[in-house]
C-alpha cells in the first residue's frame, strides 16, 4: 500500500514568488493534516481536513497560506507571496479516522523542503 | 516556555547500552502522549503510545507521570539502528490531530 506522498520534495524560490505543495494521503484516509518544521524549531501543526472540510486551521500562520482539499482526496498548500521565514519542511500526514486523540498514529509523508531566498 | 520540552542531546552511546530520554509538558489538559521516531531527513513515525500504567514494546519502555507532567522512554540493549531523533508528542483534550511536538532528542549508537 502506498504511503503519504508529497511533491515536490524540494523547492527553491525567491521571496515574493508563489509555491504550491501537494499531498496525496493514504487511500481511504479521510483525515489529512499539514505540519511544518522551520529550522531549529519543533514540528508545528498547521491545519486538519476531514474529507474536503477544514476541521481545524488554528495553526495557519497568516493569510499568505491557503490549503485546499477539493473532492476530499489530495490536498494542496499554497504560499503566496513567499517570505524568507516560510523556509522549512512541510509535512503532510493522514489518518483513517478521527481517533488520533487516542491512537496518535498519523502517517506522515517525507515532507516538502521549501527554501525561500 | 515550550509546551513540550526535551533534552536535545545528542546522546552518544555504545551498542548494548541502556539510554533514557525525558520529556516534560506544560499543559495539564494534555490527554494523550506518544513517542515518535524520525530518521535523518525522513518523516516522523509513531514508535509507541504512552500510558499511565507504563507500557513496554520489546526493548522500549515508556512511562507517564501525570502528576509531574513527565514522560520517559527507555531503550535497552541499544542497536546501531536505533540511531535517530526521538520526538515527544502530546495531544490536548478535544483536539483531533493537532499534535504538539517536542524538538526531539538525538540518539547516536556507536559500534
Structural commentary:
The complex is a heterodimer of chains A (117) and B (111). With 117 residues, chain A is mainly β. Chain A contains one helix and eleven strands; from the N terminus they run βββββββββαββ. In chain A, the strands form two sheets. In chain A, strands 2, 4, 5, 6, 9, 10 and 11 form a seven-stranded mixed β-sheet that branches. The N and C termini of chain A lie far apart (37 Å). The model of chain A has no long low-confidence stretch (mean pLDDT 92). Chain B has 111 residues and is mainly beta. In chain B, strands 2, 4, 5, 9, 10 and 11 form a six-stranded mixed β-sheet that branches. In chain B, strand 9 and strand 10 (99-101) form a beta hairpin. The radius of gyration of chain B is 13 Å and the shape is globular. Chain B starts with a strand and ends with a strand. In chain B, 38% of the residues are buried. The model of chain B has no long low-confidence stretch (mean pLDDT 92). The A-B interface holds A 4, 31, 33, 35, 41-45, 48, 55-56, 58-59, 91, 93, 95, 98, 100-106, 108-111 and B 2, 4, 31-34, 41-46, 49, 87, 89, 91, 93-104.
Tell me the strand percentage band of chain A: over 45%
The biggest sheet of chain A, with number of strands, parallel, antiparallel or mixed sense and barrel status, is: 7 strands, mixed
SSE arrangement of chain B, N to C: EEEEEEEEEEE
Distance separating the two termini of chain B: 37 Å
Overall spatial form of chain B: globular
- Level of helix content of chain A? under 10%
Q: For this entry, what is the oligomeric state of its chains?
A: heterodimer
Ranges of chain A with pLDDT <50 over ≥5 residues?
Answer: none
Most extensive interface, chain pair and sizes? A-B, 29 and 28 residues
Instruction: Name the structural class of chain A.
Output: mainly beta
Average per-residue pLDDT of chain A, rounded, comes to 92
Strand content of chain B: over 45%
Number of strands of chain A: 11
Please estimate the helix content of chain B. Answer: under 10%
Mean pLDDT of chain B: 92
Determine the N-to-C terminus distance of chain A: 37 Å
Amino acid at each position: 500500500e502506498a504511503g503519504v506522498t508529497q511533491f515536490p520534495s524540494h523547492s527553491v524560490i525567491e521571496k515574493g514568488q508563489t509555491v504550491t505543495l501537494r499531498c496525496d494521503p493514504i487511500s481511504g484516509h479521510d483525515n489529512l493534516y499539514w505540519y511544518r518544521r522551520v529550522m531549529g524549531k519543533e514540528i508545528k501543526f498547521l491545519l486538519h481536513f476531514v474529507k474536503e472540510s477544514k476541521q481545524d486551521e488554528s495553526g495557519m500562520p497568516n493569510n499568505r497560506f491557503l490549503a485546499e482539499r477539493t473532492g476530499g482526496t489530495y490536498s494542496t498548500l499554497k504560499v503566496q507571496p513567499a517570505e524568507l521565514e516560510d523556509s522549512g519542511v512541510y509535512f503532510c500526514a493522514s489518518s483513517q479516522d478521527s481517533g488520533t486523540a487516542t491512537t496518535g498514529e498519523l502517517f506522515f509523508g517525507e515532507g516538502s523542503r521549501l527554501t525561500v531566498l | 516556555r515550550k509546551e513540550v520540552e526535551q533534552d536535545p542531546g545528542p546522546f552518544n552511546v555504545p551498542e548494548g547500552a541502556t539510554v533514557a530520554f525525558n520529556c516534560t509538558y506544560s499543559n495539564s489538559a494534555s490527554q494523550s502522549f506518544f513517542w515518535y521516531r524520525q530518521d535523518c531527513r525522513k518523516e516522523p513515525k509513531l514508535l509507541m503510545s504512552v500510558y499511565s500504567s507504563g507500557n513496554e514494546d520489546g526493548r522500549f519502555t515508556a512511562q507517564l507521570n501525570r502528576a509531574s507532567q513527565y514522560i520517559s522512554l527507555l531503550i535497552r540493549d541499544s542497536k546501531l539502528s536505533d540511531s535517530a531523533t526521538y520526538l515527544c508528542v502530546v495531544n490536548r483534550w478535544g483536539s483531533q490531530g493537532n499534535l504538539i511536538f517536542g524538538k526531539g532528542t538525538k540518539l547516536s549508537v556507536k559500534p
